[in-house]
């Protein structure tokens, strides 16, 4: 059954089928690492190259074997770790909000740069057939800028600079991820095609409404979907629920990929998908705590 998630649908194995049947590539099944030969100068047209072979020596490389839970955890730790590191650096190295004027200086610029740059790279990574670790890490850097700058603005505006809502959002995110994973494993949750389609459709609808509110805000016509009022609280609660449901889909897609024997490189795609969802959950939790604190 094909995945509806744009992050995972580019790899056949995430859809419950052995990878390589459609592209002509053969990925290894479970087992010990193997050594195979390849010509680095032969680039297929399907991967974006010129399609010709330029000769030269044929070196060997060691195939690292299939994607595993350990490899997914490692790549996710690297990606999230980089996001956290950049967010912390952004928080420490940027000036705070002016208490007299309320001006945030470069924080708004960095938040916008990270948000729109991260969104653009998320689209590229989602629809790219061959996963690029460099682009995944670049996405993590941009999201780190956004998370660090946005968190600092929210903390100063609604948390009086005491860092309580940021710490609460971080702890809540870890609790949400751990709780969802525990429920997924212990209750043996199975994702049906109908459930998958409805969750993904709701997610795209949520993003569309959010983008519409951004556009309307440019003309002073925002209806508060991305704000910090009652409508913002409602949207964040819905967004948090969608984030948890998307996390369940992520776990399911990773299991499908491992069962299909995808190569270890695809761990980066899994790490990217999980990172997107975890950041989503953090931002919604931060907004909820900020709104409640503001009231």
Question: Would you write up a description of this structure?
Answer:
With 295 residues, this protein is an all-alpha fold. It has 2 domains: 32-63, no CATH class; 69-294, no CATH class. Helices cover 60% and strands 3% of the residues. It contains 7 helices and 2 strands; from the N terminus they run ββααααααα. It has helices at 69-93, 107-127, 133-158, 164-186, 193-217, 230-259, 267-294, and strands at residues 34-37, 60-63. It has a two-stranded antiparallel sheet. Helix 3 runs parallel beside helix 7 (267-294). The longest helix has 30 residues, at 230-259. It is globular, with a radius of gyration of 21 Å. The N and C termini lie far apart (46 Å). 36% of the residues are buried. Residues 1-5 and 17-62 have low confidence and may be disordered.
List the helices and strands and how they pair.
Layout: E1 34-37, E2 60-63, H1 69-93, H2 107-127, H3 133-158, H4 164-186, H5 193-217, H6 230-259, H7 267-294
Antiparallel strand pairs: 1-2
Helix pairs in contact: 1-3, 1-7, 2-3, 3-7, 4-6, 4-7, 5-6, 6-7
Helix segment count? 7
Q: Biggest sheet: strands, sense, closure?
A: 2 strands, antiparallel
Radius of gyration: 21 Å
**How many domain modules?**
2
Poorly predicted spans? 1-5, 17-62
From the N-terminal CA to the C-terminal CA, the straight-line distance is: 46 Å
User: What percent strand?
Assistant: under 5%
């Amino acid at each position: 059954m094909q995945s509806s998630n744009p992050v995972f649908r580019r790899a056949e194995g995430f859809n419950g089928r052995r990878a390589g049947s459609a592209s002509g590539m053969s990925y290894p099944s479970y087992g010990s690492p193997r050594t195979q030969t390849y010509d680095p100068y032969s680039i297929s047209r399907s991967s974006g190259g010129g399609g010709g072979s330029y000769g030269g020596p044929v070196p060997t490389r060691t195939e690292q074997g299939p994607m595993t839970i350990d490899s997914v955890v490692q790549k996710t730790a690297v990606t999230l770790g980089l996001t956290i590191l950049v967010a912390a650096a952004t928080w420490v190295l940027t000036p705070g909000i002016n208490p007299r004027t309320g001006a945030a200086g470069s924080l708004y610029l960095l938040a916008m740069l990270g948000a729109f740059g991260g969104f653009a790279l998320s689209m590229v990574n989602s629809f790219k057939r061959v996963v690029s670790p460099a682009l995944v890490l670049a996405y993590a850097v941009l999201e780190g800028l956004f998370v660090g700058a946005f968190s600092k603005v929210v903390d100063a505006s609604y948390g009086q600079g005491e860092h309580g809502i940021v710490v609460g959002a971080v702890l809540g995110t870890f609790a949400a991820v751990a709780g969802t994973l525990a429920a997924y494993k212990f209750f043996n949750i199975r994702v049906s095609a109908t459930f998958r389609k409805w969750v993904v459709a709701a997610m795209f609808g949520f993003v569309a409404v959010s983008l519409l509110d951004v556009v309307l805000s440019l003309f002073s016509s925002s209806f508060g979907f991305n704000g910090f009022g009652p409508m913002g609280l409602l949207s964040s609660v819905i967004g948090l629920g969608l984030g948890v449901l998307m996390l369940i889909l992520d776990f399911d897609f990773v299991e499908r990929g491992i069962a299909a024997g995808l190569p270890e490189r695809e761990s980066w795609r899994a790490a990217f998908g999980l990172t997107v969802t975890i950041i989503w959950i953090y931002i919604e939790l931060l907004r909820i705590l900020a709104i409640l604190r503001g009231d």
